[in-house]
Amino acid sequence: MQIGNRFRIYPTDAQAQTLLRWIGCQRFIYNAKVGEDQYFRRFARKSLAHAGQFAPIDQQYSQFKTEQTPWLSEVPSQVLRNGAVLFKQAYARYFQKLAGRPTIHRKTGPQSVWVTSELFEFKPVVDASTGEVTSYTLHLGTRKFPVGELDMVAHKSFKPAASIHIGVYAGRWHVSFNHDDGQPEPSEQDTIDWLMQHTENELRAVTVGLDRGVALPLATSDQATFGFSAIQHTRLAAQERHKKRWQRRQARRTKGSKNWCKAKAKVARYQRYAVDVRREVAHQASHALASDDRYRLFVFEALKVQNMTRAPKAKQDDQGRWLKNGARAKAGLNKSILASAWGQTKIYLSYKARRKGKLSIEVPAFYSSQECAQCGYVHSDNRISQSEFVCQRCGHQDNADHNAAQVIAKRGVRLVLSGAYDKKPKKTCRITRHRVGVEISEPDSATDPTPGETEVRREGGNTDTHWSMTQETPATAQA
Fold first, then answer.
1. Band of the pLDDT at 149, cuts 50, 70, 90?
2. pTM of the model as a whole
3. Other CB atoms within 10 A of residue 233 CB
4. CA distance 349 to 462
5. Phi and psi of 220, rounded to 5°?
6. Which burial class, exposed, middle or buried, applies to 144 when counting CB atoms under 10 A from its CB (0-12, 13-18, 19+)?
7. Where are the domains of the chain?
8. 133-141 and 163-169: which strand pairing?
9. How far apart are CA 303 and CA 179, in angstroms?
10. pLDDT tens for residues 34-67?
11. What are the pLDDT digits (tens) for 2-34?
12. DSSP 3-state assignment of 211?
């Protein structure tokens, strides 16, 4: 199975400047490919001079190396090529309906560069006394563009990979990659078949429901809770105060000056702390659940976080005056939802459970907080407060989050035993020598408009256009 690795690296100031140059040049090639594609798609049907001309979705980047961009020659060609490959891979994801069209990458926030095997090498460090490999050192660059040896701290054993990502966020550098440990990964269908062999009571004993909330990020059906500790809450509040203070200082300074850049770096560091804490909490909660031998089935409520955190629409009265729509209160709620690490916990638990032969599913969340876990009675008055639940029919009393988690667990058991749970096949996009994520087929002269051309959608609507098969992207790729 594939194992992810993310290690800290400590480049020198000179090495950091070189890596930042690599990141910027790769981002420039990617954005140039995106801009070229957007230009042709915008004017192909509006300008007679551009009729029938479409930007090829390929890995060519030489047209961007001109007299106006001499700095592109200061980095290895593999860095530029990988930027074009990333663009092509992004379009392959669009064709597979996994994402939208490629968009411009900004130079703010986390940045990274994709480095392939021509530019790096993990050299083993061998213990002279035992002859065993104790660690690895990362050597980066080529003879023409040397970077040198980077100090790397690997907190676990790993196997060298064919490509790596070197990233930086708020001054902190890290290297990330995957490696195959050689162990077979259990399939989800085999896990489902094993779970369906049990009775409802037997399956209920190995099932845990997970209720996600704002006040308490995660509550389970066996009365366990996961969230931020008291010290984490205190430090997050302090970091938020410091971040706002430095944001005000940054706003008062001249944009682009050294003091402005210092304030910007301060803001990024305080923001990075909150990101690290949320990641740590999500990893700890998911690891504790996946490692528990009592559970084989994890059930989440299907929450649409993107819809839940959408800003309210503006309202006007009959005279055109703007009315209060609760935008300020909704903004505070949205911030609390996004800071609870709902999505991260679910993603981490899904892959950790799959590696251990367990299953993580989702069930509809309708009225889960108003349904009684004992008798199934649903009423809005059942939840009398944020933490109290009292059934209006049978009188069952419980913590509201614990009751909702039990309801979610029951729904998950019934869903699995009914056979209605159908895991959709996961779509993937792979970069190969001849194609990206799709299969190549020969055109049919009887049905295709012209030999060597096929119909694909390049516009946002339903209008089809012709696309030459001589381009590198397969002709059968469709939006």
1. very high
2. 0.80
3. 12
4. 39
5. -105, 165
6. exposed
7. 2-180, 188-418, 439-479
8. unpaired
9. 32
10. 998 888 887 766 666 656 666 778 888 999 999 9
11. 888 999 999 999 999 999 999 999 999 999 999
12. strand
